[in-house]
Amino acid sequence: MKILKFLVLGLFFVFGAARADNLIVYFSDSGNTERVANTIQGLVGGDMARIESVIPYPKSKTDKTYVAKREQESDARPEYHDLGVNVADYDVIFLGYPIWWGKMPMIVYTFLENNDFYGKVIVPFATYGTSGLGNTVDDIKRIAVGATVTDGFGMPGRETEKDHTDAVKEWLGKLSAQ
Ligand SMILES: Cc1cc2nc3c(=O)[nH]c(=O)nc-3n(C[C@H](O)[C@H](O)[C@H](O)COP(=O)(O)O)c2cc1C
Question: Ligand 1 pocket check: which of 128, 159, 164 to mutate, most ligand atoms within 8 Å of Cβ?
């Protein structure tokens, strides 16, 4: 499995810009995770898709926090708009999300359960306030049966407002050496 990882990740890292089979798919409510997604795309190339909820989250932070907690407690699967891409067309899927109440937002679970990741490589990345990635990478491994899930990358959301290209580059470099 390590050799497979090395081959696939090494290939996308070296030829990333020329390859169309990276998909960078992300959910981002306030734009932090989206900035990291853009940085990844600038480095490895590929197509982008944003997961957008059919029912928009409230603008007020208090209301949003409440809705997110309620979704988590009820194990909800919020629906999202058509992504405009077909996950089946890609080999390597970068999956980005903010940490909400210590976990992935429930809409990311919807995305993971709606698609077949067998034989694909999933590269998780997240932004958060302070809590880090938590168990989110293990959650992805559990749901995306048959996928190779790499180590995740995370950074505090406020740091995405500064140039974070070197941090992302360093992480990608470590992945391609795994
Ligand atoms: C509903 C909600 C729950 C959150 N829960 C956590 C949390 O458990 N731990 C944490 O460190 N940050 C938490 N945050 C902060 C976000 O993870 C952080 O601001 C992130 O960078 C937002 O990314 P985005 O701009 O892509 O939406 C939460 C934010 C919201 C709105």
Answer: 128
Q: CB of 25 within 8 A of CB of 96? A: yes
Q: Whose CA is nearest to atom 31 of ligand 1?
A: 65
Q: Using alpha carbons, select from 144, 162, 29 the residue that is nearest to residue 97.
A: 29
124: domain CATH number is 3.40.50.360
- Residue 98 Cα to ligand 1 midpoint, Å, equals 5
Which atom of ligand 1 is nearest the CA belonging to 131? Answer: 11
Number of separate domains in the chain: 1
Contacting residues for 61 by C-beta, under 8 A, at least 6 apart: none
Give 51-96 pLDDT, tens digit per residue: 999 999 999 999 999 999 999 999 999 999 999 999 999 999 999 9
